[in-house]
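Record type: monomer structure entry
Structure origin: computed from sequence
Chain ID: A
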Amino acid sequence: MSSGSKKSPSNGFEKALTSEEEQTKIKEVRRLIGQLPDKLSIYCSDTCIARYLQARNWHVKKATKMLKESLKWRLEYKPEEIRWEDIANEAETGKIYRSTSIDRHGRTVLVMRPSRQNSKSIKGQIKYLVYCMENAILNLAPDREQMVWLIDFEGFNLSNISVKVTRETAHVLQERYPERLGVAILYNPPKFFEPFWMVVKPFLEPKTANKVKFVYSDDLNSKKIMEDLFDMEHLEFAFGGNDSMGFDINTYSERMREDDKKIPAFWTREHPASTALQPSLSCALDSININSGSGSISDASDNEKTDCSPSLQVESEAVSPGENMVATNGSKHAI
């Protein structure tokens, strides 16, 4: 981990941390979290803890609180257990999928096409988003922590806009996948999208919003952004590249089923297993109250013990046809 200036909500920057200082903070968070069982222990690597610290400007207590909430969510929602068969119907139109190519920095690329929304279930949409995020992380190179989002606005219209879906999506991406987004490219967004962006932007952390780039196919500066970021020979034709293959659901289904086979090994790679929930984690989870149905999270006071609530659920509500999310953060926002 390299040291450097980091933005702070108060003055825009905070004091640069040395590698030793960063490691000290990571160890402190690990101490506060305590021993963890199986998959959660694997999840809480040093790089993972560093991402939560970065998301909270290296504030140990805030990062620990955020991480504990994520651990409770992962324990209940079980994102690593979602398989292709669970969400295949959401994927049929290619509204979100992992590209076969990577960017020039070796990062996984997720393609998103909000005009291809095919579901009225917010719960189903969020579950598919989580599956896509987990799959993108599964396919990250060992030395990479972030991914790229390519959001194609072809065919996008007002019926595709849903503030409610956006709010739920932004919550999951920012709170459960902090610092996973390297850059989000909004490709050819229509003029009417700009006021919607102004509505959505307050849902996002400032550092997340700054990763969003508006790119237009007829703009020379935009073309340079794409050429600097991607090998145009392997980039999809829809984004100005030379790859004309496009999305095919049958081919993609085979890829995802093969990826699903890798998941068990991914979650048993390292860290000694602990078959029972340790008291420290149990107490930590008891202190976090997830409000089922809204995706919102509130913490009980340090002295107040709260029973574990049901798994995080997003109500399966009817959304007007075409209503959709346009993801733009992870590590994490959506529009």
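Annotation 1: Strands lie at 96-102, 108-112, 147-152, 181-187, 212-215, 288-290, 297-299.
Annotation 2: The radius of gyration is 20 Å.
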